[in-house]
Amino acid sequence: MIINTPNLKFFRYGFRKNLLFILFFILLMACSKKETLEAESIKTASGWGYTISYNDKILIKQTIIPVISEVKSFSSEEDALKVADLVIKKISRNTSPSVTKNDLILLKIKM
């Protein structure tokens, strides 16, 4: 008898993908009113992160470097704000706010 167990890795990927789509939709709706998104750096226990807010409500809170396999915060406040600015630019262009490894390399983020 063969028992199929769900692949948790696939579930987590699907969940993240759906969550990203919902977040992208909310941000698109927010930006369609031509209001501004604000980036702010936050200090974490191991480095830096950032938040992106709209009308004083935090929409994105990123405390770790996205895309890399390690759970690691940004090494400097400047690195965190560079990525936050990139995400805001992507949202303003009505594209997905996801960050790629290539984006991190182009921004010269220390990984």
TrEMBL record:
Origin: domain of life: Bacteria
Matching InterPro entries: DUF4907
Name the UniProt record assigns to this protein: DUF4907 domain-containing protein
Organism the protein comes from: Flavobacterium calami
